[in-house]
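User: Can you help me understand a structure? I only have the sequence.
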Amino acid sequence: MEVDLAVVGAGPAGLAAAREVARRGATVAVFDEHPVTGGRLRCQLHPAGRGWSSGRPKAEELAEAARAAGARLLTETSVWGLFPRNGRGHGGRPGPGPGGWVLQCTGWHTGPVTARTVLVATGATEGALPVPGWTLPGVITAGAAQVLANVHRVLPGRRVLVVGLDPLGVAVARSLALAGAEVVGVAQAPPGPASGRRGVPARALADLAGSVAGGSLLPPPLRLAARGLAREGLAGFALRRLPARPVKRWGIPFYLRQAVTELRGTGQVTEARLEPVSPDGRLADGKTLWLVVDAVCLSGGLHPLIELVAAAGARLACVPELGGRVPVTGPDFQTTLEGVYVAGGAAGVEGADVAAAQGTLAGLAIAETLGRISRAEAGGLKQRARLAVKLARRQAPITFHPRIHAGLRRLRACWHET
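Assistant: Let's start by predicting it. Here is the structure, written out as tokens:
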């Protein structure tokens, strides 16, 4: 198969880019390992005004628009390799040369695909949150619980504990409660290097308060002070003065001063141990609690899924404000590999609306690279697309990393150093 653009990932970023390029007459193929398109957008459910905003119809609309524009959507296909067609680029560095890129695939479509340009829109992956006993049946990630409840309409358990005070963990706790589960609590992540900022209650609370939805996600005693709590010092001050007992939001207990340190069970998880923890992430004196559970959801954060472009030789930068290591990209999401772009979670963890806007911008830049739109026309279109990205970021219902703008500045500096 030979195409003008190969898109890896059929989430909002990949579908939006495919639509923009295909509608201008280029040949486009979109590959995704899952049986349906839409990525994690299909499992998202957010409060919007007096109702709820569901990601499933948005995902279906994006897929239909890409398909109607002429893009081929190939599901149940994994792309495991990205190689320059001529072997090496200029100066011995990876690059496409005149032959473009070769993608190696397996699954429904098996074999090589040659593409003049490539967009990697592989999204994000969940980080590990190791707790003694976390390999017991019934212990899953928060994202897995979100898929079970919002896509498959299956509860992970009847008495569920969520571990991790972050936007994803809190949102999953609320959706599980609305679906009929008894959420016995949302507790702090265990202290230690494996948990990072999530294991330091003052930092975890500051990050949650600094997210766009922080004010609505926080329990009532803290909601009005969300802006101040976004500062770690004030978050620690507040935690030291809160009572040891949990505070409630939507009827769910929030254990702001207790961390989960052990999970127990025979055959499956049945108990969770909570111990007092200081605002700076040290185990403290106090009463140990044991909660009876039949499911535990671990929220270890989201990180860009970048292995494909990393193995191809793209330059990377460590930007914690964007979720970790990300490809160094320019203003149109081009990487340091000629003809290779990234967008969506692979470029930095943000929401689905931001990812779709990024995909639109990357698609316009790719259409320009392929000669499908003139440089003059592309200039105005891309300028509007950049504004759309900023607007989507400003209106995002949830921000996973509250210091996103600092991360974007750091990434721009890395690009100018290349």
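Now, to help you interpret it: The chain has a mean pLDDT of 89. The first strand starts at residue 2 and ends at 8. Let me know which part you'd like to focus on.
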